[in-house]
């Protein structure tokens, strides 16, 4: 079975055919989903892509470099607010999207370094507490920076944000291509998909790069990494900045897509959920993180149908679906972690970590014997 | 000429002065050991020499130029490499990945001949190259730590307690390896609690006591020194 799979992979033509099929499926997905489940679900699909970008960003910090960050949503907020303030009637600024997107990545990256600098000596639980505080500080700033000078418009948030547009092409309106009607949510889907693919590409390249190896070394043993000649300070700051910039891009897209943002969208729960996505999917493994992000975006939405399910099974609604929804969601998380402790698609290294110590002991015995021989 | 020398070196952890004015030098191609009891300041001296701890006072010269206060990652690039106490290998990475990280500081990409050299020195590592380093035995892990350090082509190798926690047979093996590395032209400074092993393979030795160097002589002379015999060689 495995041999056949390997042989199959060696055939370049088949690989290309598979990619082509995947591309076609991704291209048709919004139409299929729209036809079966309605436009609302295409919107959820869009959000899933935003979360994939967020999760891949956090994966750089937590998965690659091993720095536990509980305030990651702050960078999403920075990106979103940057876009909202520079492209809305709030300051009557309407900067173009192609400028705001890289700017968002840059500013969020700077905030990432800002968080990284004072936490360089911290690890594990201690780092988690400080990053958690950082996330809350950003949120509270956004809530309170409406006086004496109104910068963020406080808890009311920023409204009427410009939809994302490239030149005259606005993503919020319906367009017709080759006789096919493409609604706004579909157009956003393609934009987000393109950027998600870019983020995936960057993630893969980073993983195999010199910096990627330095991150792994720091995650495994910081002192040994230093002894290898790795500039641990700079490499850690870079992890924070790179991860944050992904969050910034995603945040900007969120603001333009949603048209309205307020500090409430960036609370601690959001940070936790993004962290859950990567832990549950498989920390450090790109495919796992993507799967985790999609699953955790879709699952809570799918659970909204619990009421209808009850009516179909029992003939009436026994428990309020709103109450049941988060309960089942939590239960699902617990179950996944019990059944797959290293995540749904763990990276090879995580799998090693979770392997039992028995094999280690056996090897030790064997090699001691060898040494004496 | 000396490859590295420290003059009046002082290192402290907060208020605690661990190293109180140490003078030592290692000549090019020499194999020198630093022996002493637990807490004498041996490891601290070593960490200061490779830039992992800041010197509170004194100077360190390497290759004829002062390097006091230079960061560790820069000194690795200039050829000073530490094999940390307790090995400090990357347990979840494979043997090969560990060795590749050893060459991290090098600008050139030609690591294949160095890999061959390490595998030649430690055939066990070649057999286990695809295995996670954490599954190696203690002796193999020490070999991996030394092999990883060699991957950066060091000019000065600092070894911190390479014999710690190893079976007597393996201790002897590690001793042979150190001597072999020395013969290949690498300058070595070895910190050991196992004074017998250290003095048996070294050219010269320093004895440290509570942060100071109390004796400095050829290894032969130290071995026959009654004071050293009483304190470190078990009579």
TrEMBL record, chain A:
Compartment(s) where it occurs, according to its Swiss-Prot or TrEMBL record: Cell membrane
CDD domains, alphabetized: TM_PBP1_LivM_like
GO cellular component: plasma membrane
InterPro entries linked: ABC_transp_permease, LivM-like
Presence of keyword Repressor: no
Membrane topology (UniProt): Multi-pass membrane protein
Assigned keywords, A-Z: ATP-binding, Cell membrane, Membrane, Nucleotide-binding, Transmembrane, Transmembrane helix
UniProt-listed PANTHER family: HIGH-AFFINITY BRANCHED-CHAIN AMINO ACID TRANSPORT PROTEIN BRAE, HIGH-AFFINITY BRANCHED-CHAIN AMINO ACID TRANSPORT SYSTEM PERMEASE
Protein name: ABC transporter ATP-binding protein
Organism of provenance: Candidatus Muproteobacteria bacterium RIFCSPHIGHO2_01_FULL_65_16
UniProtKB/TrEMBL annotation, chain B:
Record-linked PROSITE patterns: ABC_TRANSPORTER_1, ABC_TRANSPORTER_2
Keywords from the named record: Amino-acid transport, ATP-binding, Nucleotide-binding, Transport
Organism name: Candidatus Muproteobacteria bacterium RIFCSPHIGHO2_01_FULL_65_16
Keyword Repeat: no
MF terms in GO: ATP binding; ATP hydrolysis activity; branched-chain amino acid transmembrane transporter activity
Name of the protein in question: ABC transporter ATP-binding protein
Pfam families for the chain: ABC_tran
Origin superkingdom: Bacteria
Spans traversing the lipid bilayer: none
Family as reported in the entry's similarity comment: Belongs to the ABC transporter superfamily.
Protein's UniProt keywords contain ATP-binding: yes
GO biological process: L-amino acid transport
SMART domains membership: AAA
Annotated ABC transporter domain residues: 4-235
């Amino acid at each position: 079975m495995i041999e056949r799979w390997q042989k199959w992979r060696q055939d370049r033509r088949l690989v290309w055919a598979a990619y082509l099929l995947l591309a076609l499926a991704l291209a048709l997905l919004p139409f299929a989903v729209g036809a079966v489940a309605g436009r609302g679900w295409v919107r959820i699909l869009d959000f899933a892509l935003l979360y994939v970008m967020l999760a891949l960003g956090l994966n750089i910090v937590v998965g690659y470099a091993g720095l536990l960050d509980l305030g990651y949503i702050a960078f999403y907020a920075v990106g979103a607010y940057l876009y909202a303030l520079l492209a809305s009637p709030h300051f009557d600024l309407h900067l173009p999207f192609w400028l705001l997107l890289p700017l968002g990545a840059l500013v969020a990256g700077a905030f990432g370094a800002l968080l990284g600098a004072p936490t360089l000596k911290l690890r594990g639980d201690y780092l988690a507490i400080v990053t958690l505080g950082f996330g809350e500080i950003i949120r509270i700033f956004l809530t309170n920076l409406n006086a004496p000078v109104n910068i963020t418009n406080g808890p009311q948030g920023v409204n009427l944000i410009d939809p994302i547009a490239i030149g005259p092409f606005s993503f919020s309106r319906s367009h017709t291509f080759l006789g096919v009607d493409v609604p706004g949510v579909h157009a956003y889907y393609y934009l987000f998909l393109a950027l998600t693919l870019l983020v995936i590409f960057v993630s893969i390249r980073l993983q195999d790069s010199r910096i990627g190896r330095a991150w792994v070394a720091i995650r495994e043993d910081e002192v040994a990494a230093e002894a290898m000649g790795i500039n641990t300070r700079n490499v850690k700051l870079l992890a924070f900045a790179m991860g944050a910039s992904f969050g910034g891009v995603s945040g900007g897209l969120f603001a333009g897509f949603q048209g309205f943002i307020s500090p409430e969208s960036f609370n601690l729960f959001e940070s936790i959920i993004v962290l859950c996505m990567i832990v549950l999917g498989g920390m450090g493994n790109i495919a796992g993180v993507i799967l985790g992000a999609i699953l955790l975006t879709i699952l809570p939405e799918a659970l909204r149908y619990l009421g209808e399910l009850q009516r179909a099974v029992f003939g009436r609604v026994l428990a309020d679906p709103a109450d049941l929804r988060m309960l089942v969601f939590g239960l699902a998380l617990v179950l996944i972690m019990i059944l797959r402790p290293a995540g749904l698609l763990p990276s090879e290294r995580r799998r090693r970590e979770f392997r039992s110590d028995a094999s280690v002991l056996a090897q030790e015995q064997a090699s001691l014997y060898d040494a004496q021989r | 000429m000396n490859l590295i020398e420290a003059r009046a070196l002082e290192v402290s952890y907060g208020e605690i002065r661990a190293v109180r004015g140490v003078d030592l030098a290692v000549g090019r191609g020499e194999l020198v050991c630093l022996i002493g009891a637990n807490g004498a300041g041996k490891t601290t001296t070593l960490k200061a020499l490779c830039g992992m701890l800041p010197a509170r006072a004194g100077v360190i010269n390497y290759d004829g130029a002062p390097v006091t206060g230079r960061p560790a990652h820069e000194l690795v690039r200039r050829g000073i490499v530490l094999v940390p106490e307790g090995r400090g290998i990357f347990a979840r990475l494979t043997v090969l990945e560990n060795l590749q990280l050893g060459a991290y500081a090098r600008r050139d990409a030609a690591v294949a001949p160095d890999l061959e050299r390490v595998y030649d020195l430690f055939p066990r590592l070649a057999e286990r190259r695809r295995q996670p380093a954490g599954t190696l035995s203690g002796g193999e892990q020490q070999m991996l730590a030394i092999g990883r350090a060699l991957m950066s082509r060091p000019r000065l190798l600092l070894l911190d307690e390479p014999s710690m926690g190893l079976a007597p047979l393996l201790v002897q093996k590690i001793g042979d390896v150190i001597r072999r590395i020395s013969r290949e032209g690498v300058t070595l400074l070895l910190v050991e609690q196992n004074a017998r092993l250290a003095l048996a393979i070294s050219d010269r030795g320093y004895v440290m006591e509570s942060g100071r160097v109390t004796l400095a002589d050829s290894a032969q002379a130290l071995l026959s020194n009654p004071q050293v015999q009483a304190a470190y060689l078990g009579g």
